[in-house]
Every structure is written in structure tokens, then in C-alpha cells.
Amino acid sequence: MKNNAPLVNFRRLSVPLPWWLLIWVVVPVLAWHAARALIRLLPIVRRNWCSLSLAFGGIWLWYRHGWLVLVLIAVAGAVGLWWWRWRPSCQRLVLLPLLAWWRRISLYQLHWREALTLCKLAERFDGARIMPKLLRVRCTAAADEVLLRMPRGQNPDLYHAASANLAYSFNARECRVYTGRRTTPPVRKGRWAPLLRLMDRDRPRLVWLVFPRRDPLRHIVPAFPVADEPDFERLPLGLGEDLRTFALRLLATHVLVVGATRSGKGSVLWSLVRALVAGIPTGLVQLWGIDPKGGVELSLGRELFARYEFSDPAAMVEMLEELVAKMRERQARMQGHVRFHTPTVDEPLYVLVVDEILALVALLLDPDLRARSRAALGLILTQGGGLGVLAVAFTQDPRKEVVELRDFFPARIALRVNERNHVDLILGDGSRARGALADQLSADPSLRGIGYVVLDDRPEPLRVRFGYVTDDEIRAMAELYAAPLVVAPRPAPAPAKHRSQPASHRYRPGPLLPDSLADLLGGEAAA
């Protein structure tokens, strides 16, 4: 039998290691290398402690609670980082849509049938209850905007009448109703124009209900920076309730501002002047100021006005007549050439600022001066818009004489007023029912400058807080943007045979005064 055993038997040398040698030699060597590695890792750990903490925390959460909790916490952490570094985009894209979803399911959808039935906005037809359909809930930083579709047979006036009940039904103090009517649809061009025009069609049955969650206008709005050149299409004056800048289109627009004493009319006045001030030194804008209250308000910025009167009623009326004469001259130059005035340095925009219009149309003791003043103001209001001669009037008391001229002002602003019926007298019939609660505005000095704006292209009032221009800012504007000096023309001496005639015979409006306006002014202007 063949033996396959190797001739030489190789074996490893095995030397038994005493335990004391393992403890006193090997362990210290291993500990030394481990300490060196740890010392080298310390700067890396110090630089990346946040990432390492998150990694170990994620591993621990996954081990203890599973991957779902880990994903939720990771998403919340990413959103928190986004909110910390890029807050506006995070609110617009994440937080506000989440808030809208939550409020829709927890408030509006939950109580929709009950609230609208008790508010008498649901009807029965053919044995079934017809409800307004809740389409969308959108949240802004200050309010909830609820879009609904009215059933057939309803109109927005029903929702205006039920706005107070709707507000308290959905745990809000106020409810504003907007029809969403578009007066100037955009012009669509290109290959997708037919589809876009289909999307832009008017939807009169859609109604927006706006429920404010908080008052965003409680804080003072600082004055807007002075622009390099005034944009007459969009003059920034204040902040709207939707936290957007309220911009006024001044071209071909007269503005009437009514408010009680210490309601913030100065905020409207100086915000408008500040928006126009860049065009004053170049002659693009000419401000003409009349302050029948003795110059208390306008004298602080006296240098900004090309013409300014504050003490003599006769001089005020003569200034109005001079502005009418300039308007007539411009009218003669524009005939047959253009229909709408565009401000230039050679043909500037004239802005007449009257701090108390009631003093000119009702409180002048001389009836001849009062008639001349009413006639001149009537001409400016009826014909000056397209000619670049605009009026911005302020008053405290909406008396009959002021209300008669209300419809000649396309833009009307109501600050805090004392009587409930004053709101409709200023802004138009039904304005208070549509949400203009100017009689409920607080008299707190910290809340001055809040008011409601009604423009000629939208029936719903807009709540706005106008910018606060300090006295130092007014003085700085007067120093930096002083108006070029305009010398008032001296009236020619009347012939001897006419010196005994009344003052009203020295100014005849002629055929430019409409018959309807003459009848409206009670026949005084046609005298």
C-alpha cells in the first residue's frame, strides 16, 4: 500500500503569550494608536458636528421609530431651513398652501352648509337644496380668500347684505365681498391666444369672500422712496389690506379725500406729493396749493408749490381763474391734434391741491367770490382731466355742497368719519354695504391714515393705510425738490366805467360751463 504522508511535517511555531505581557505591552500600544486617531478626528468632528449629529440622530430615529417618522422629521427640517433662509418663497409655495388646505377642511368645508343655510344663501328647487359651491380657499399673510360659484338666481348684492353674518359664521370680524369683475382683460397674442382668451372669459357668477385673520395695517407704513421720475400710471401711496402696494393712476383723475379731524388726511396729501416730487424741479409737474385754513398744513412744504395761497380769499379765487385760463389755452392748442394730454416739460401736469374745499364752495362770506370759486372748480373738475389739469381736494365735512361735486371725482377716499351715513355720501350709495366701514375706524392716534378707496373702475372699496411722511422728510423734499418760481400775473386795471361793476362780472365762464353743472350749483355759477 502506497503511503502518501509527507516526508517532512511543517508546523507553525506556537509560543504561549503570558497574560501579563498582553496587558502591559499590547493594550497600551493599541490605546496609543486609538488616541492619535481620535485626536486627528477632533477637528473634523468640530467642523462637521451638525452633520454628524443629524446622521446619528437619523440612525437612532430609524432604529427606534421606523423610516416614516424619519422622513416626516426630515421634511419638516428642510421646510424650517427654507423658511429661515428664504422666507418669502417658503411662505408662498409651502406654508400658505398648507394653511389654506387645513382651513378649508377644518373650517369652511365643515361648516359650509350650516353657515350658508342660516345666512339665507341656500335655496330649494325641485325638492333639493341648492348651495353655493365652494371652489377654492386661498390664504394670504393676513386673510383667507374663499372663491364660490353662485347658484342661478342669485347676484352679489345678496352676499354684500349677508357679509356680517358670514363673517361671524366663520369666526372672523369682517367679510369683504368681491365680484372679481375684470374691466380691462389682457390682450392675448400668439399661437396660444385662442386658448388663453377662453381662460380669460368673464365669469360673473364667481364671488370672492375675504375673511381677514388679522389686521395687517396696524403698523405705520413708512414713506415710500422718491422715484427718479414719477409714474403717473402708478403712484405708490400706501399699503393695501392684501399687503400689496396701493398705486393710484393720477392721469385724468381727480381725487376727493374726506376724513374727520386727526384721521390722517396729511398722510394722503404728502404721500401723493412725495410720489410726484421728482417731476417738480424739472417742470414736469406743477403743484398749485390753496390752504384756506391759514397755511397750517401746506406751509411746511411751501417751496414745492409753484403757486400757493393761504390767507386772502380773493387771491385764492383769482388763482383758480388763472388755472382755468391755462386750461383754456391748452384746450385751444390740443384741438385737432390730440385728445388726451401727456405731461411734458413744455406742457406740464397741473395738480391743484385744496386742503379744505368746503371753504371755497360753501364758507366764503362774499357770494360773488363763492360763485366764481364754484364755477372755476366746476370747470376744472368737468374738463381738466383730459387736459392735464387735475384737482386733489380735502375736506372734513361731507356737506351738501361737497356731495354735489362728488361724482366729478373718479377717485374718492374716505378716512375715519363720525356718522354712518357719511360713508355713502362720500363713496357713493351702497359703499358701506359693500364693506367700507369708515365710521368704525379707530380714533387711536397710532391708526391714523387708514381709509377706504373707491375707484371708478371697481365698485368694491379697498382698505388702505397711506404712508406716513414725517415733518423732517417734508422739509427735506422742500429743500431738494423746490419748484421753479412762477410769478403770478398782475390783473390789468379795469376801465373807469366798469370799476363799479360787481366782482362776478370780471370772470365769465362763457359757453364752457355745462348746463347740468350750472343747474347743480344752484344757478350761482351761471350768474
Describe this structure in words.
- Strand 3 and strand 4 (143-149) form a beta hairpin.
- The protein is elongated, with a radius of gyration of 37 Å.
- The chain has helices at 19-47, 49-65, 67-85, 87-118, 156-161, 163-169, 193-199, 265-276, 313-334, 357-361, 367-383, 400-404, 421-427, 471-480, 515-520; strands at 123-125, 128-130, 133-139, 143-149, 176-178, 206-212, 235-240, 245-248, 255-258, 285-290, 307-309, 349-354, 389-395, 411-414, 450-454, 462-466.
- It is 38% helix and 15% strand.
- It is α/β, with parallel strands linked by helices and 527 residues long.
- Mean pLDDT is 82; it is low at 494-527.
- Helix 2 packs antiparallel against helix 3 (67-85).
- 30% of the residues are buried.
- Among the domains are: 87-181 and 203-212, Threonyl-tRNA Synthetase, Chain A, domain 2 (2-Layer Sandwich), CATH 3.30.980; 235-489 and 515-520, 3-Layer(aba) Sandwich (Rossmann fold).
- The protein contains 15 helices and 16 strands.
